[in-house]
Each structure stands twice: as structure tokens, then as C-alpha cells.
TrEMBL record:
Coiled coil: none annotated. Pfam families: Beta-prop_KIB1-4. Signal peptide: none annotated. Residues 11-316 form the KIB1-4 beta-propeller domain. It comes from Nyssa sinensis. This is KIB1-4 beta-propeller domain-containing protein. InterPro entries: KIB1-4_b-propeller, SCF_F-box_domain.
């Protein structure tokens, strides 16, 4: 094992991805309305609404949007959490693009527990070091511990059923033991084929999403003849996502088993988080699809609002087709614009937010 000095300091930025729904009694007449948001609380205790799949803020908000959003007026379902490490004494330039202040530019998995004696949370953080190895930090530590296990660089980490899991670029998956001396145990052998692996929890199962990237014209990339995809973009070449495969963990057999359909589930692959949701909880959604960020779908048009940092693509598992989010009005409304009832159901102007969701 190795150690990485953190004497310069960092802080952990936490966000919560939520489904915002109509309050009682409105949900009885329209139970499937829903809006997908990511909420972050900054150092000044102000709330920011962010794109659920990246770090861009919802701007500009509609003029009818409430100046102070009281989330106690809505039904809130937590779908996932995002943790990012950021420097304390470093701030990126005001016009910098992306999350330049992040420590490792990778997703962080976190496990915490309440210490009754001190009334403080003890925690363990797991992320991917710039070397591709796993890095662990416990409350009370002064240095990162880098776990010396590197058959291949790691792609993703996740907290699942109270344990840390990590997958490398070949699909080899381990459970990370952190309670004593850090070590890893193999839980699934490699799944070769794709270029980047993601771990997603869905319906209390651990899924592996294998992303395939390609360079070239459409006929070489498997877009199933969907030539109209290119009509909206200036660039016909460059690396882009071309397809996905989904697997579920067979822990007893130590293998990944391919899943041909997600049914009514939707998977979301963000820049720093992954999560899933039921399509029936959102109006106009059918499920069996994957949402992901991709520079190929980048757009800076003002009317795109939420889409201005990185583009969002949608992969349909049934037909293998990839399209920009803008081609799916029902799915587009998951993100933007805010549904009209967000403004109409604000009953009072006060700042209130449940501690569980920050």
C-alpha cells in the first residue's frame, strides 16, 4: 500500500439526486408527474439546482420559478447521491470549463455512520487515484491510502448494500474491505468488449453497464441507419458513444450475466454518479433505456438551458438506437423545463430543506 499526502486539504461536496413530485392531494389525480433534480448546498447554506448528470447549474430559471423553493411542499424521493472531492485553497478560473477543482476527477463512494459518543459521523471514502488504483480515506486519517491492486486501471466505484465495489476497465469486479487493512476480494471475472464500465444499483441489484466508444462515420458505429442523428451536428467524426451492454451480478457464480431488457427501469450515467429510476414515476417515460453524457451531443444554444455544458444521449435497449435527449420530448421534460406545478404549488416563502437530502 502507498499513501498520498493531503496536507493541503480538501473538502467533500455532496449532492442528492431527487425525484420531485406533486404534493398531496394532487398526486392522487396525477401520480406519475415528476421532475428530476440534483440539489447542492454551498458553503453559505444556499441551495443550487444542478443538472442531474453533470455539474452545470439550472440557468436561467423561468421568470415564474419561485425565488425560494420550499421542498417541504413536495413529495421527494431520493434516487442517489453524488460526492466530489475539491481543494480547499484552490479555485479554478471563473471562465474554466468543467469541474477543475476536483481532486481526482472521479466519482467518490462514501460510507458513514453516526458515532453516538461524539455525535459525529465517522466515514470512509473510496475513489480512483490518478494512477488508476483505488484510494481510501477514513475519518481521522491524514493521508490517502492507495490500495496496491492493479491488474487493470479501475473505472468505477460504488457503495452497494453497505459495501464498496469497484470495477476495472476489463470488467473485473472486487469488493473492497476497508474495516481493517484495506484489501480486495474478487466477486466477478472480466467482461471484455466495451471501453468504459459503470456500476449502477437498480431494484436492489448491482448492474454493470459497458459503454462502447467509436470513431468514424455512422455505418461503422452501429447507429442502425439513423442518419438523421447527424443533421443537428456540425461534426461527423470524433470519439462518441455507440452502444451499451448491461449485465447483472451473479455473486455466487462470480460472473456478470447479460441483461437484454431493463423493463420499466431507466439507468442514468452521470459524470460523477450513477442511479436508476422507475419510468412510471415520470410522465411520458417508457423505460428500458440509458441516459448518459457525451460531448458528441454538446450544444451551446441558449434555449437548451440544461443541455449547455455537456450533451445528454439516450440509448434504447430494445432497438439499440442512440439519439440526443432533444429527440425525446417526454424524456427531455425529466430535466427541463421545470413543470408548471413547481411554481403553482409553492404555498409559502421560507427556507426549509430536510437534512437527509443534503
Amino acid at each position: 500500500m502507498e499513501s498520498s499526502d493531503t496536507s493541503w486539504g480538501f473538502y467533500l461536496s455532496k449532492c442528492t439526486i431527487c425525484r420531485l413530485g406533486l404534493p398531496e392531494p394532487h398526486c392522487q389525480t396525477s401520480p406519475s408527474d415528476g421532475w428530476l433534480i440534483k440539489v447542492e448546498q454551498d458553503a453559505l447554506q444556499r441551495m443550487r439546482l444542478l443538472n442531474p448528470l453533470c455539474r452545470s447549474e439550472f440557468k436561467p430559471l423561468p421568470t415564474t420559478f419561485p425565488r425560494i423553493l420550499d421542498l417541504s411542499n413536495f413529495r421527494i424521493s431520493e434516487l442517489g447521491q453524488e460526492c466530489i472531492l475539491q481543494y480547499i485553497n484552490y479555485r479554478p478560473f471563473a471562465n474554466s470549463i468543467g469541474d477543475a477543482g476536483s481532486l481526482y476527477m472521479e466519482k467518490v463512494a462514501m460510507r458513514s455512520s453516526r458515532c453516538s459518543s461524539s455525535r459525529l459521523d465517522s466515514f470512509v471514502l473510496l475513489t480512483i487515484h490518478v494512477s488508476g488504483k483505488l484510494a481510501m480515506f477514513k475519518s481521522g486519517d491524514k493521508k490517502w491510502t492507495v490500495i496496491d491492486d492493479l491488474p487493470s486501471p479501475y473505472d468505477d466505484v460504488i457503495l452497494f448494500r453497505g459495501q464498496f465495489y469497484a470495477v476495472d476497465s476489463t470488467g473485473r469486479t472486487v469488493v473492497v474491505l476497508v474495516d481493517s487493512s484495506p484489501s480486495v476480494n474478487l466477486v466477478a471475472n472480466s467482461v471484455f468488449g466495451g471501453d468504459k464500465k459503470f456500476l449502477v444499483e437498480s431494484c436492489d441489484e448491482l448492474l454493470l453497464v459497458d459503454m462502447y466508444l467509436g470513431v468514424g462515420l455512422e455505418d461503422d458505429l452501429g447507429y442502425n441507419g439513423a442518419l438523421d442523428v447527424y443533421d443537428e451536428f456540425d461534426c461527423l467524426t470524433g470519439e462518441r458513444t455507440v452502444r451499451f451492454k448491461v449485465f447483472k451480478l451473479d455473486q455466487e457464480g462470480q460472473k456478470w450475466v447479460e441483461v437484454k431488457s431493463l423493463g420499466g427501469r431507466m439507468l442514468f450515467l452521470g459524470d460523477n454518479c450513477t442511479f436508476s429510476a422507475l419510468a412510471s414515476d415520470f410522465t411520458g417515460c417508457e423505460g428500458n433505456c440509458i441516459f448518459f453524457t457525451d460531448n458528441f451531443f454538446y450544444s451551446n444554444r441558449e434555449e437548451d438551458g440544461v443541455l449547455k455544458c455537456r450533451g445528454i444521449g439516450v440509448f434504447d435497449l430494445e432497438n439499440g438506437r442512440i439519439d440526443p435527449l432533444a429527440n425525446y420530448p417526454g424524456y427531455y421534460n425529466l430535466f427541463w423545463p421545470p413543470p408548471p406545478w413547481v411554481s403553482s404549488t409553492v404555498l409559502e416563502v421560507r427556507v426549509f430543506f430536510w437534512h437527509h437530502y443534503v
